[in-house]
Amino acid sequence: MEDEVKGLGTVFIDYWNQFLEAVPGLILALIIIVVGIFIARQIASFFGNKILGRMEDPLMGRFLVTSLRLLIIIGAVLLGLRAAGLSGIAGALFGALGASAVILGFAFRDIGENFISGIILAFNRPFDINDTIRVVDHFGKVKSLQFRYTHIKTFDGKDVYIPNSDVLTEPVQNYTADGFIRYDFVVGIAYEDDIQGAKEVIQHVLDHNELIIRDDDHINFVAEDELAASTVNLRVYFWVNTKDFRAGALQVRGEVIRDIKNAIDANNYNLPADITEIKLYGSERDIPLRIEFDNTPNSEAENLPPRAQKKGVDPGKPESTPQ
Hints:
The chain is of the alpha+beta class. Helices cover about 50% and strands about 15% of the residues. It has helices at about 1-55, 60-85, 85-105, 110-125, 165-170, 195-210, 245-265, 305-310, and strands at about 130-135, 140-145, 150-155, 160-165, 170-175, 180-190, 220-225, 230-240. It is elongated, with a radius of gyration of 39 Å. The model is unreliable at about 310-315 and about 320-323 (pLDDT under 50).
């Protein structure tokens, strides 16, 4: 029994001595790692200012700065383990990480997909910072691209973080890639109106609006669109600048609609409402109908005889004559 106790004591003393011998190396390793993290931040900040200030693509610059910081930190950790005499542990650790990568890949598949998608988007993507894009149902301006998500700011003030895998696999609509977008809307005129004349009135508005883009590649025009139930529909096509999509483009569209409506009215063209058709089924042959007139200008009451206007006589009912 005493021999076993002495053996355990000897083993404990041996391990304690080995630990004391390793303490300086562990302290040195800890110092190297801490200093490495500090240096990584400083170098990343220094090169970040240089890269972001000169690169035309700030999203790519941020990706390179983040990658540089991570590489320096990993290098500091490896150097610290080597200084502590744990280079074998470092090799075993990375080997274990490589072996477990498959298991972790299945467990965190979505995170892995977003990470890899972020790397792909950093080098090949369909948008830049402050571009206006639509991804699925999300519509706004791009603010940043991270390893796992893309940050956009919607026009109603919401911050939306879209997984990079969705950005990579879903269709991305970029409204500001070249700075132009074509709008269109429908103007319905009456069947008795002159179609060509109405088109010329609308075209005159398009040709004299200074906010509409006009060049060889961006043509503004009006075309017959449909013979609807109540109107002849003309579709108006025009190009606007989308650099300030939130305000500029939408305001120009509103001004064009307003100006065309005023021009149509000024040239005595009609914008009739939809015609409603009433059908009677079964044994009914008519429906009760009563018409009331008011005293507003241009009302049908002005066409009534003065006596009928005073008494409120139904214009469809003949006046009785004294016998």
